[in-house]
Amino acid sequence: MEPVYIVGQTFDKTDFTVAPFAKGEYENCIFTNCNFSNTDISGSAFVECEFRVCNISLVKLTGTAFREVKFKDCKMLGMQFGGCNQFSLLFSFDNCILNHSSFYKLKLKKINFHNSKLEEVDFTETDLSNSVFDNCDLVRATFDNTILEKADLRTSYNYSIDPETNRIKKTKFSLAGIAGLLDKYDIEIEC
To answer: Residues 6 or more apart from 18 whose CB is under 8 A from it?
Structure first.
């Protein structure tokens, strides 16, 4: 099948587990209430697209490009973003469930996570400089050799970040979140 080039189209309630996904480039498209679960979207490009209330869990992303893409109210379990095309990679997440996903070794400067669940997400060796984690649950998320310089985690919770193995210069934390920087010492903190 030849790659497609689609501009400005809206996909509503499309089930790509039944109807085959046409690989290609999608520009200024909106996907609403679509099911991509376990779909192979490898090699496709999404430019200035929006995904709203979609199930995008466990999709195959090898070489997939996301440029200025917004995800809102999406279920995105087990996503392996590390395999994406990293050229101009830029996306944001609002009220999404990204549990068990991986951003391994990506440069995601200024990325925004808003009201999202990031349980057991892997941020190992990820550059998250100037990123914002607004009201996000980061329980058991992995931060190892992660660059968090000037990131904002003031309203997020349940994170455990080792200041000795991550770069946190000028990172913003709330007083309530300071305990997440001391987890490795197994100490008890009372307020």
So the answer is: none
- Token readout for 141 is 């998320």
101-131 residue pLDDT tens? 999 999 999 999 999 999 999 999 999 999 9
Query: Domains plus CATH for the chain?
Result: 1-78+87-95 (2.160.20.80), 102-191 (2.160.20.80)
Specify the pLDDT at position 183: 74
**129's tokens:** 């400089």
Residue percentage of the chain with pLDDT more than 70 = 97
Pairing of strands 10-12, 45-47: unpaired
The token pair at 187 is 């100490």
DSSP output for the chain? -PPEEEES-EEES-BTTTSPP--EEEES-EEES-B-TT-B-TT-EEES-EEES-B-TT-B-TT-EEEEEEEES-B-TT-BGGGSEEEEEEEEEES-B-TT-B-TT-B-TT-EEES-B-TT-B-TT-B-TT-EEES-B-TT-B-SS-B-TT-B-TT-BS----TTTSB-TT-B--GGGGGGGSGGG------
Per-residue pLDDT of 131-148, as tens digits, reads: 999 999 999 999 999 999
